[in-house]
Amino acid sequence: MRLPVVVPFVVALIVAAMAGCTASSNPPVEADKASAKTPDKAAAAKPASPPQRPAQASVADDGKRIDVASAVLDFPIEAADVFDGRVLRIDRVAILGQEDRGERFDLLLRIEGPSDPKAEGGRCRDGREIVLREISFDGNDNMITGSQDYQSCLKRIRPVAERRFPDGRVEYDLKHTYPAGDTWDVYLKYDLAHPGAGVTM
Which distant-in-sequence residues (6+ apart) come within 8 Å of 126 by Cβ? Predict the structure, then answer.
């Protein structure tokens, strides 16, 4: 009696099973290429620009104003509001001190420009005007400002001494000279680390 021949069938089953395992463990190369070409939109997104901290101040191209930019408020300062017509153009601004309080900024600016060349019959054509301006403001458009002349044409106002201290305080001695020749001494004190320490908003 002869037994049926089943070896080829068993071999075929084994080959099919091995092929299935190979297919499951090695996915098609085309799928890998397709997934590699898909960009990650979240990773590609650019982060938002950080807010302006610390605050910045710059002179406009025409010299007619200063532009202040901060994390809570942006605003201009017109030359006429600072110098009351004594200069035609601002040419320099510097932030001497500032404090970022989160929702409020306190600044001390030094604003400069050449004296009006026609003032005093032309005698101010080589003069300079310098003003120290304190500004406290917040994101609700509240603003408190104060200005002090630091230097003016014909040495009517001029600095004579400056003292700086390690904790950020600075003192200026000024001398005012009146047309009749009388003089008046002025002393200014600022805290550059906390320029708005005495301001309540």
Answer: 115
Long-range residue pairs from 45-53, CB within 8 A, at least 24 positions apart, any chain: 53/100
| Phi, psi dihedrals of residue 139, rounded to the nearest 5° | -75, -5
Are the CB atoms for 133 and 142 separated by under 8 Å? no
Q: Rounded to an integer, what distance in angstroms lies between the CA atom of residue 188 and that of residue 133? A: 12
- The residue behind tokens 């890998």 is 32
**pLDDT tens, 91-145?**
999 999 999 999 999 999 999 999 999 988 898 988 999 999 999 999 999 999 9
Contact indicator for 156, 181 with CB cutoff of 8 Å: no
How far is residue 120's CA from residue 65's CA, in Å, rounded to a whole number? 24
Residue appearing with tokens 């230097």 = 151
Q: 132 near 108, Cβ under 8 Å? A: yes
**Beta-carbon neighbour count of residue 53 at 10 Å?**
13
Distance CA 155, CA 177 (A): 7
pLDDT digits (tens, 9 = 90+) for 23-58: 444 554 444 444 455 555 555 555 566 666 899 999
